[in-house]
Amino acid sequence: MSKVTFSVIKADVGSIGGHTEPSKPMMEVIHNRLRKAVEEGKLIDALATHTGDDIALLMSHRGGVGDAQVHQFAWEGFLAATEIAKDAGLYGAGQDLLVDAPSGNIRGAGPAVAEIEFERDPKCKHRPAEAFLVLAADKAGPGAYNYPLYSVFCDPMHNGGLLLSPKLHLGFTLTIIDMDHKAKDSDRVIRLDVPERSWDVAALLQNPDRFAVEAIHSRYQPQEQVVSVSATRLHNIAGKYTGKDDPVSIVRVQGIFPAPEEVVEPYILGHFISGDARGSHVMPLMPVAINTPVAGPFCLPLVSCLAFSMDAKGRFARSRVDIFGNVVWDATRLKIQQKADEWRRQGFIGPTMAAQAELAYTGIVDTLAALDKEFSLRKEQPVAADDD
Ligand code: 13P
Ligand code: MG
Ligand code: MG
Fold first, then answer.
1. Is residue 378 part of a domain?
2. Angle CA(67)–CA(73)–CA(75) in degrees, nearest 5?
3. Structure confidence by residue, pLDDT tens digits, 72-92
4. Distance (Å, rounded) from C-alpha 143 to C-alpha 232?
5. How many CA atoms are closer than 13 Å to the CA of 163, on its beta-carbon side?
6. Strand 302-310 and strand 286-287: pairing?
7. What's the total number of domains in the chain?
8. Is 4's pLDDT higher than 90?
9. Residue 1 pLDDT > 60
10. Ligand 1 pocket, residue 299 CB under 6 Å
11. Which residues span the domain enclosing 350?
């Protein structure tokens, strides 16, 4: 038996003509580095994709979660792509590399990190095959997966598998992180078992700007991790708005876990999330094909989804399925674009812009602070006494 770690590490290190997509030479340098690392045996297998302007490195290896070498390798790849972006005058070169030369694990240094370590054993009874989805969102806050994950793991109205599969029926343990906790040496997390604590989970996930699902484990024994989400806040690291968090997520599927069709079902809604232009609006999340640039009005939040299989040695099947690239999502896309158009007719007033706690990291605070000084207090006028 041998353990394999699947790591997805993603960063925006520059894009063409605004926050659209990385350039081909940037992707080439990343592809070449990944190919070399696999040839040299540093990684078992690897692939690079982009969703909007974010480059995602998908890597299998034996180093475990948070492996310093794998993280450093990813960081150096992003640095190499940054140099190419700078030379070509691309926008936002090195945008998500927020810390100077982080040592070891780069979680909290800017790039989004989702990782799961698991046993890869074809003889194992409960998990002879390994299948998983990688979701990558652009122009999106880290709570972007709250609604779909709640729907899939807590709500049989969305996921009939919770009723039909005795293994799923045992429930799951959700780890939810408080993203407002800013201490350098600790995370603030809560673990809740569902279905018993579903309403408590709902009470937290209601606020996706503060609370996000970080991990989900099976309650089927042996406990297996089914979900990992990169739930960190860039503005908590940088202290100001430097770009959106654009979270990535791994969801293992089939067998003791939900099926892929159950995992992607909630994405037909086009649920509202914080993100969009300047990361400062509330807009619906649109499922798109892998390697899609951001080119529409508003900078609509996007999410891509790739389906993988992994062999006993930790190698990916040579072809993959681009789930949201399929024609069945065309009607959803049209509906979501129309939903966005209608919603944004309201401009900036009230709920179409992100919550005040989010806007507090943008330039609007300077305007409000200046205006604050112009306010004056008007004394209440006494009501004239009645002479009669
Ligand atoms: P990214 O976080 O994808 O770079 O987008 C930032 C932005 O402000 C888009 O308007
Ligand atoms: Mg960008
Ligand atoms: Mg981005």
1. no
2. 100
3. 999 999 999 999 999 999 999
4. 9
5. 6
6. parallel
7. 1
8. yes
9. no
10. yes
11. 2-369
294 in a structural domain: yes
What's residue 183's pLDDT? 84
> What residues have their beta carbon closer than 5 A to ion ligand 2?
12, 19, 53, 92
Decide if pLDDT at 387 tops 80: no
Question: Is residue 112 over pLDDT 80?
Answer: yes
The atom number, within ligand 1, closest to the CA of 12 reads: 4
Report cis status (omega within 30 of 0) of the bond before 128.
no
**Residues 340-361: pLDDT tens digits?**
999 999 999 999 999 999 999 9
Ligand 1 atom nearest 54 alpha carbon: 3
Q: Where are the alpha helices (DSSP H) in the chain?
A: 24-39, 68-87, 146-154, 161-164, 166-169, 198-205, 234-238, 260-264, 330-343, 356-359, 364-374
Average pLDDT, the chain: 95
pLDDT band at residue 239 under the 50/70/90 scheme? confident
Say yes or no: CB of residue 245 within 6 Å of ligand 1.
no
User: Does the beta carbon of 22 lie inside 6 Å of ligand 1?
Assistant: no
Residue nearest to atom 8 of ligand 1 (CA): 278
Q: Specify if 374 maps to a domain.
A: no
C-beta of residue 273 within 8 angstroms of C-beta of residue 293: no
Question: Is residue 383 domain-resident?
Answer: no
| 250 Cα: distance to centroid of ligand 2 (angstroms) | 22
Residue nearest to atom 6 of ligand 1 (CA): 243
Q: What is the pLDDT of residue 388?
A: 64
Please provide the size of the chain in residues: 388
CA-nearest residue for atom 4, ligand 1, is 243
CA distance 228 to 221: 19
Question: Which atom from ligand 1 is nearest to the alpha carbon of 243?
Answer: 2
Distance CA 271, CA 163 (A): 24
